[in-house]
Design brief:
Blueprint (H helix, E strand, L loop, with lengths): L4 E7 L7 E9 L5 E4 H6 L6 E6 L5 E13 L2 E10 L6 E3 H6 L2 E4 L4 E4 L15
Length: 128
C-alpha cells in the first residue's frame, strides 16, 4: 500500500486562534499523532507529560506528549500529540481517525468516512 496524506490543523485548545496546518502521513500503525516540536511550541503548546512508545523495530523510546485539537476532513477531535524532532514528518494516528469515524480505504489509498462512528456496547449495557 502507498502513503496516504491529509491536511491537518493542530489547534491550541486554550488559545484557539493559535494553530498550525500541515500535510500529515496517515499512519494506522500509530496510536497517537506526532508533530515536529517547533510547530507545537510556536502555537503555545508545552509538554504535559511523557509516555513510552514502541517503534516499528521493537525499540522503546520515551516521548513528550501534550493534548490539542486535531482538525481534518471537516471534523475535530481532541487528542494526544507527541513532540517529534524538528525534521520529522507529521503523523496522524489511528485514534484521531477512529474517533471521528474515518478509516483508510487500502484499495484506493484514501480516507473514507464511515456512515457512523463505531460505538460498541458491552453485553447487558445500553448507551441510550
Amino acid at each position: 500500500m502507498g502513503a496516504t496524506h491529509v491536511t491537518v490543523t493542530i489547534r491550541n485548545p486554550a488559545e484557539p486562534d493559535r494553530s498550525w496546518e500541515g500535510l500529515f502521513l496517515v499512519d494506522t500503525g500509530a496510536t497517537d499523532s506526532l508533530v515536529p516540536r517547533p510547530h507545537l511550541e510556536a502555537i503555545g503548546l508545552k509538554p504535559k507529560g511523557q509516555r513510552v512508545y514502541e517503534l516499528a523495530d521493537g525499540r522503546e523510546i520515551t516521548m513528550d506528549i501534550t493534548t490539542a485539537d486535531i482538525e481534518f476532513m471537516g471534523e475535530i477531535v481532541g487528542g494526544t500529540i507527541l513532540f517529534g524532532e524538528a525534521n520529522v514528518e507529521p503523523l496522524l494516528g489511528v485514534t484521531a481517525l477512529e474517533s471521528v469515524g474515518i478509516e483508510v480505504d487500502p484499495t484506493n489509498e484514501r480516507l473514507k468516512r464511515l456512515p457512523a462512528v463505531r460505538l460498541k456496547s458491552l453485553r447487558g449495557h445500553e448507551y441510550v
